[in-house]
Structures are given as structure tokens and as C-alpha cells.
């Protein structure tokens, strides 16, 4: 019968910490934070998501002006779905960018929900416009953050 060797506690702890550190590494390649954010943007098709959300907001405004409540509710539901879909791509490798995009996507979804719930009412229209304006401002802030990080290129800056 052979005895197994006992691993000293310090060695076991070091091995465990290395394993945990490996799990915490960003899944997006790049030597700098900007490169990692650029990789995230490319892999999640961030530019297309922002273009879609902006187009959804324009569509909601057009449908509201057209006065077709059923079409407006559909447009609002599409906006909510697209905002929730974009939110699934978070977090980014940058905490600040994640915070800004979380606020943007929440505002877009809130605007879409308010629109769908009160399609046509003056108070609902004002809330929708406010939420969509907040989302649009956050999209600009997100783009500025990406520019600050140097995360441009394929998918980096829409």
C-alpha cells in the first residue's frame, strides 16, 4: 500500500487562487481595456444594437404622430424587446461603460413599456419622450466612453 503525498496548505491555497483568478479573466481579448471593450463590442454587435434601438425610438415617434394605437403598441413592444436583448450583452469589460449602458437600456425599456401601457395619452407620451431622450443621451455617453478608451474599429463606435 502506498501513501499519497500531502499537499501543504499554502500550496493548495495558491493553486486555488490561481484557478479563481483564471475564471475572473475577461473573455474579451486585448492587452488594454480599450482593446477588450473593442472586442466586446465586435463580439456582441454593439453598433447594430444601438442602431436598432435608435431606429425603434424614431419608429415610435412616427407611429405616435400617425395616431394608430395598435401599430404604436407593436412598435413600443419591439422597443422593449430590443432594449432587453441589448441588455443581455452586459456586462462590458469596463464598469463605467456597463453602468452607462445599463441606464440607457433601462430607459429605453421603460419608455417602451410606458408607450405600450398608455399609447396615446398625454402623460404617457411625455414620459415616453423623457425616457427615450434619457436613453439617447446615454447612448452618446457610452460612445464617448468608448472613444476615451480607444475602443474604436469593428463594432467599437457605432
What topology does this entry show?
Layout: H1 9-24, H2 33-44, H3 46-66, H4 69-87, H5 95-117, H6 122-149
Helix pairs in contact: 3-4, 3-6, 4-5, 5-6
Give a short overview.
The protein is mainly α.
Task: Write out key terms for the chains shown.
Four Helix Bundle (Hemerythrin (Met), subunit A), 158 residues
Fold and architecture overview:
By secondary structure, this protein is an all-alpha fold. It has a single domain (33-149), classed as Four Helix Bundle (Hemerythrin (Met), subunit A). Helices cover 75% and strands 0% of the residues. The protein contains six helices and no strands. α3 packs antiparallel against α4, α3 (46-66) runs antiparallel to α6 and α4 (69-87) packs antiparallel against α5 (95-117). The longest helix is centred in the last third of the chain and has 28 residues, at 122-149. It is elongated and about 50 Å long. Residues 9-24 have low confidence and may be disordered.
SS element count, helices: 6
- CATH architecture descriptor: Up-down Bundle
| CA-based gyration radius | 22 Å
Percent of residues in β-strands: under 5%
Distance between termini?
66 Å
Uncertain runs with pLDDT below 50, 5 residues or more?
9-24
Amino acid at each position: 500500500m502506498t501513501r499519497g503525498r500531502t499537499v501543504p496548505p499554502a500550496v493548495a491555497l495558491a493553486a486555488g487562487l490561481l484557478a479563481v483568478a483564471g475564471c475572473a479573466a475577461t473573455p474579451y481579448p486585448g492587452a488594454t481595456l480599450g482593446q477588450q471593450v473593442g472586442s466586446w463590442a465586435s463580439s456582441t454587435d454593439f453598433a447594430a444594437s444601438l442602431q436598432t434601438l435608435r431606429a425603434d425610438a424614431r419608429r415610435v415617434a412616427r407611429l405616435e404622430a400617425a395616431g394608430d394605437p395598435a401599430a404604436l403598441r407593436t412598435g413600443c413592444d419591439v422597443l422593449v424587446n430590443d432594449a432587453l436583448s441589448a441588455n443581455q450583452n452586459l456586462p462590458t469589460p469596463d464598469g463605467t461603460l456597463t453602468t452607462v449602458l445599463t441606464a440607457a437600456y433601462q430607459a429605453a425599456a421603460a419608455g417602451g413599456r410606458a408607450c405600450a401601457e398608455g399609447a396615446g395619452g398625454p402623460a404617457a407620451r411625455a414620459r415616453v419622450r423623457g425616457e427615450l431622450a434619457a436613453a439617447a443621451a446615454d447612448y452618446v455617453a457610452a460612445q464617448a466612453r468608448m472613444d476615451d478608451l480607444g475602443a474604436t474599429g469593428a463594432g467599437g463606435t457605432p
